[in-house]
Amino acid sequence: MGEDEGKIQFKRALESLGTGVIYAHSPEAKGKIEKRFDYFQRRLPFLCERYKVVKIAEAEKVLDELIEFYNEKRVHQETGQTPNDRWEKGEREGKTRIRALPEDIDLDYVFSLHYERKVKTDGTISFNARRWKVGKFPKDKVTVCFIPEKKIMIFKDKQKLWEYHL
To answer: pTM score > 0.70 for this model?
Structure first.
């Protein structure tokens, strides 16, 4: 998948959730997130070396602990609050736009890679150098929803026709 296609797929997923991307165009806005990443990039190698980490699973545990510390215990110099405390205060004061997802939303559908295919006269489609049974709708277009190494789902007008586990 090319970079442009990835951007298109990501934009489609966000739009289907009724949201979008907000780009940080100023150095100040970019600095907020970059400072956080810089903190992790400086601390993680040091901690992995300190604890003699040699496996990715071990490093993931160290990173989880580092993120937990950063969010829950590390007090920001300017605000005097931890990121979690600041977040919770913003929620209490109604300063967030986050809302609950509808209970019936299929996140596999939303975040899978979507590809359009035309059903062949024999009721199959071609995808990833294989043929997949659709069973109906010859010559109609369907959407193949692909989660790499997990599954393929075939939809017609947002109705799931088939699901194949890989």
So the answer is: no
